[in-house]
Amino acid sequence: xxxxxxxxxxxxxxxxxxxxxxxxxxxxxxxxxxxxxxxxxxxxxxxxxxxxxxxxxxxxxxxxxxxxxxxxxxxxxxxxxxxxxxxxxxxxxxxxxxxxxxxxxxxxxxxxxxxxxxxxxxxxxxxxxxxxxxxxxxxxxxxxxxxxxxxxxxxxxxxxxxxxxxxxxxxxxxxxxxxxxxxxxxxxxxxxxxxxxxxxxxxxxxxxxxxxxxxxxxxxxxxxxxxxxxxx
Length: 232
Prior knowledge:
CATH topology: Rossmann fold
CATH architecture: 3-Layer(aba) Sandwich
Number of domains: 1
Largest sheet: 4 strands, parallel
Shape: globular
Number of helices: 12
Number of strands: 4
Oligomer: single chain
Helix content: 40-55%
Radius of gyration: 17 Å
Structural class: alpha/beta
CATH superfamily: Alpha/Beta hydrolase fold, catalytic domain
């Protein structure tokens, strides 16, 4: 759903010390939408390989990786399959298994048949607390409008990737220094989901923020501080 602009508050701080690279996941924003038919499906392996391909293209040998939601489980895949490319891993508002196959398949079918508008109409309740929506109506409106303008087929293809993605049994094999960030009011990927990851990835740390699903926006300062401490 969200585009790379969602990281702007972090970028403004982090770029003072680090080179920062943002990217749109395939099917989102300005990235390619492969297989534009209604039945197009991506895999978590593809999403992870996209990151490696981007790093290779830009001649980045190793990097700190931070991902939120689908980006978080993409990061877990990288920690399992390309740990030699990661200096550290930050998994925010995510899980080793996000939702279930039935739910993601149903959502994919919904957006292909009905478009993105109906999904976008209810997005703010999944992304932010009521208090934040009341405090920041213009920002919330901009985010939901971006979702409504997204490719339905690209979004559906990512839903199908999440329908199949399950890394719960593999977490103990991740050797990368890992920070897990959770939003206390996140209805999508809960604190329990985050705790499951942090308790199984060796040496992982868990930070809970007073936020919902897009904690890097709702609790931007606290999120950026936690991420900065992880980067060292």
